[in-house]
Each structure stands twice: as C-alpha cells, then as structure tokens.
C-alpha cells in the first residue's frame, strides 16, 4: 500500500521541517510531496534539503504562485503516475494536525473519500475569531443548500482520496481554485456515486506565517458554487 501526503506550500519555511517530521512519526511509510510555488521565503530550498536527507520527501517546484487548486491537481497527477493507492491533501501551517492521519486511513478502505470535518460532533476550531468562523459557516451552509449536499464541512482542506476516485475525477475538468476546489471535488465524487465519510478533526488557526486568504477567493465561492450545478459530471 502506497500513501502520498500532498502539502501545497507558499511561504511555509517556518513550518515545513517540523510538519514533515510529525507526518512521518504518524505514517512512517508515507511519501510527502511538497508542491511549492517558488515561495520567496525559501520553502522550496528547504524542501530540497529535506528531500536530500529523506527519500520519502519529494518536491515539485512551480515557477510562480498559481493557486491552491492547481497545486493539488499537480500533486494528484503525480500520485496517479507514481502508483499511490491513498492520497492525502493537507495544509502546511499545522491547522491540520498530523495526529489524525491514521484516522483517515482506518476509514478510506471502506470509502473513497474521507473529509476531515470541523462541524460534526468531536470536531471543532481553535484560534479563529468570530469573523472567520462566520465566513466559514456561511460558506458551508451556502454550498450545502445550493448543491444539495449533506456533509457538514465542505470547505476543509484535510482530505484523503482513494486512487480509484482520483482516476475517475477528471482532474482537467475541475474549474475552481480556492475554497471552491474543496467543494467541487467532494461534489464531483458524490455525483459519481462514490462513498464519502466525514471524520472529526479539531482545526487550529494558523500560528506561524501569513494568511493567504483573499477577497478573490471568497468571491469565487459566491459565483462558482451555483455554476457547479450545471457542469457535466
Ligand atoms: N503551492 C501553493 N500553495 C499555496 C498557495 N496558496 C496557499 N498555499 C498553501 O496552501 C495551504 C493553505 O493555505 P493557507 O494560507 O493556510 O489558507 P487558509 O488556511 O485558508 O488561511 P490561513 O490559515 O489563515 O492562512 C498552506 O499550506 C499554504 O502554504 C498557492 O498559490 N500555491
Ligand atoms: Mg491555513
């Protein structure tokens, strides 16, 4: 069984070494793929150094900051090409605690997509102010109602996919980048009839490094979510 953990990075030099150590202490047999967009803070150089010492760390370096969705897609294609069976996506800023990785793996055998969920019993959020919480709840409610999905956390970025689902997801047809990317991948999986399960995670707001959330990412959510209803799946 081959496992890949995709970690997209933009200016995460303060987090990467500790994160990769913690991932490997949970899943020693997993490979970690850093997809870096030429971060000015030297994240890619750090990743290269780590990869030089540890063959279970890989790095793809893209020329410029090109968005989170396309970074995941790049990682997914790498996973398919290199024969991985289970593929995680997680953030580099410790919002997604590596201690949950085994919980996902315990379920993904019976499902095709596991969502790390802040909004089911046992899940939660620490370190976020009222505005960020409100924004996230509103986005989830909006997506749930507009797309008729029953999952409580559609915008989270801590997920695990089976190879079978990734093969069938038509990666080149995906239209979104920011939070909508998370909604779209889950929506496509559901429409194609794959089995999806939410498991509880406590999400920690970022402590180190700078947030990349922008108004553009929020606006994208408003107009692209309804559009998803009309795409051919
Ligand atoms: N490769 C790549 N990674 C990105 C890009 N934008 C964000 N990331 C990474 O994607 C993950 C999630 O981004 P964050 O900036 O943490 O976004 P967020 O969690 O919504 O917001 P904050 O935690 O408040 O910053 C982090 O590991 C980032 O370094 C990008 O354009 N390209
Ligand atoms: Mg974050």
Describe the structure in your own words:
The chain is an alpha/beta fold and 233 residues long. It is 42% helix and 18% strand. The chain contains eight helices and nine strands. The strands form two sheets. The protein has a seven-stranded mixed sheet, sandwiched between helices. It has a two-stranded parallel ribbon with strand order 6-9. β1, α1 and β2 form a beta-alpha-beta unit. α1 runs parallel beside α2 and α7 packs parallel to α8. The model has no long low-confidence stretch (mean pLDDT 95). Guanosine-5'-triphosphate binds next to β1, β2 and α3.
What's the number of helices? 8
Number of strands: 9
Helix content: 40-55%
Coarse structural class: alpha/beta
Bound molecules: guanosine-5'-triphosphate, magnesium ion
Most strands sheet: 7 strands, mixed
- Mean pLDDT score, rounded? 95
Q: Give the low-confidence spans.
A: none
Silhouette? globular
What is the first-to-last residue Cα distance?
Answer: 29 Å
As a percent range, the share of strand residues is 15-25%
Question: What is the topology, as strand order, of the major beta sheet?
Answer: 3-2-1-4-7-5-8
H-E string: EHEHEHEHEEHEHHEEH
Task: Fill in the keyword field for this structure.
single chain; 233 residues; alpha/beta; 7-stranded mixed sheet; two-stranded parallel ribbon; 8 helices; 9 strands; binds guanosine-5'-triphosphate; binds magnesium ion
List the helices and strands and how they pair.
Blueprint: E1 3-9, H1 13-26, E2 31-36, H2 43-53, E3 57-61, H3 68-81, E4 86-89, H4 101-108, E5 113-117, E6 124-126, H5 130-147, E7 159-162, H6 163-168, H7 179-191, E8 196-200, E9 202-204, H8 215-228
Parallel strand pairs: 1-2, 1-4, 2-3, 5-8, 6-9
Antiparallel strand pairs: 4-7, 5-7
Magnesium ion binds next to loops.
């Amino acid at each position: 069984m081959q496992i890949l953990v995709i970690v997209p990075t933009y200016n995460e030099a303060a987090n990467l070494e500790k994160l990769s150590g913690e991932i490997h202490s949970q899943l020693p047999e997993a490979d970690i793929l850093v997809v870096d967009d030429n971060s000015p803070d030297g994240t890619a150089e750090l990743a290269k150094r780590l990869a030089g010492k540890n063959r279970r760390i890989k790095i793809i370096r893209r020329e410029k900051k090109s968005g989170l969705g396309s970074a995941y897609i790049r990682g997914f294609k790498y996973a398919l090409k290199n024969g991985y069976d289970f593929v995680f996506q997680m953030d580099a800023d410790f919002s997604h605690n590596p201690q949950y990785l085994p919980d996902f793996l315990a379920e993904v055998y019976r499902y095709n997509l596991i969502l790390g969920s802040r909004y089911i019993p046992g899940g939660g959020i620490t370190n976020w102010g009222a505005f960020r919480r409100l924004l996230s709840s509103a986005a989830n409610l909006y997506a749930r109602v507009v797309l008729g999905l029953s999952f409580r956390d559609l915008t989270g970025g801590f997920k695990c996919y089976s190879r079978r689902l990734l093969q069938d997801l038509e990666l080149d047809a995906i239209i979104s980048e920011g939070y909508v990317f998370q909604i779209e991948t889950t929506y496509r999986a559901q429409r194609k009839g794959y089995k999806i399960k939410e498991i509880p995670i406590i999400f920690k707001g970022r402590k180190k490094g700078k947030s990349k959330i922008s108004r553009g990412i929020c606006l994208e959510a408003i107009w692209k979510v309804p559009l998803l209803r009309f795409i051919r799946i």
